[in-house]
Design a protein that fits this description.
The protein is of the alpha+beta class. It folds into 2 domains: 4-113, Orthogonal Bundle (Arc Repressor Mutant, subunit A); 126-256, Rossmann fold (3-Layer(aba) Sandwich). Helices cover 36% and strands 26% of the residues. The strands form 4 sheets. Strands 10, 11, 12, 13, 14 and 15 form a 6-stranded mixed sheet that branches. Helix 1 crosses helix 2 (49-56) and helix 5 crosses helix 8 (231-256).
Length: 257
């Protein structure tokens, strides 16, 4: 039986190597289809750049730039569906992975982040730091927001009794509306830190809230206003401040628990 993968309004017919949107073929090249197939055959799992290039250019030595071009083409096509441009996630220095909703004909349509069994909770308090919500109009603010996530994860990781989820594990939730309880279930954590960033002229405002996923209770909320001068020092200062207030909040929550 021919294999067909379905995600949103799209269908990837493996035997014909054609991507459809509804009943209409999508004008993408064979290389892009081969890359997409390699990704959707391993939903939710990292696929290395070497594996993708071998799938699209078997036996040929090609520049990595060729793969980047095909990924960009796929994101443009999938982006016709709201949020579809984020279904192919970049994993720095590792490769890519498909995080969109996907199903075979005999399977229900589910999110790839929910496809795997939920991991068990660690034997110590655990937290996931979610991607920043960029409230500024400037798209170039994204690099600052992503850097803040990295710095906060690093600062929280210095708390020895706390288990902190890797940033790459939470990146797939960026731009998606997912409940805190579902996030905690899928990642195997007890607490979730949500944040937003807004920039106006030379000032940056960071808002954050710490949520107990079991009860939905807001354990702590805070706001940080800083002048945007040395961006790296700013990220370090905010990350240190966030970690400094979250540690006692988590200690109090664990004591009550």
């Amino acid at each position: 039986m021919d294999t067909v993968y379905t995600f949103g309004p799209f269908r990837l017919d493996i035997s014909s190597k054609i991507l459809f949107r509804g009943a209409d073929p999508v004008p993408v090249g064979r290389r892009a289809v081969d890359v997409l197939r390699a990704l959707v055959e391993h939903p939710g799992s990292p696929v290395s750049k070497d594996a993708l290039m071998q799938a699209a250019w078997p036996g040929l030595a090609v520049e990595e730039a060729n793969l980047i071009v095909q990924i960009a083409a796929l994101r443009r096509v999938l982006g016709e569906e709201p949020g579809g441009d984020r279904w192919i996630e970049t994993l720095p220095r590792r490769g890519y992975r498909f995080v969109g909703p996907i199903a075979k004909p005999d399977e229900p349509l589910v999110s790839t982040t929910a496809r795997a069994a939920a991991p068990p909770l660690p034997d110590k308090p655990s937290i996931a730091v979610m991607p920043f919500q960029n409230l500024s109009d400037a798209p170039d603010q994204e690099y600052f927001a992503e850097g803040m996530v990295e710095e906060i994860v690093t600062a929280l990781s210095c708390i020895k009794w706390l288990f902190v989820i890797d940033r790459n594990s939470t990146a797939s939730y960026k731009g998606r509306t997912v409940s805190v309880k579902q996030i905690a279930h899928e990642l195997g954590v007890r607490y979730v830190l949500e944040r937003a960033v807004r920039r106006a002229n030379n000032r940056v405002r960071i808002t954050a809230q710490l949520i107990d996923a079991d009860t939905g209770a807001n354990l702590w909320a805070g706001r940080f206003n800083k002048h945007l001068q040395d961006i790296f020092q700013l990220q370090d200062d905010i990350a240190t401040s966030v970690a400094g207030v979250i540690e006692p909040a988590l200690e109090a929550a664990e004591t009550r628990r």
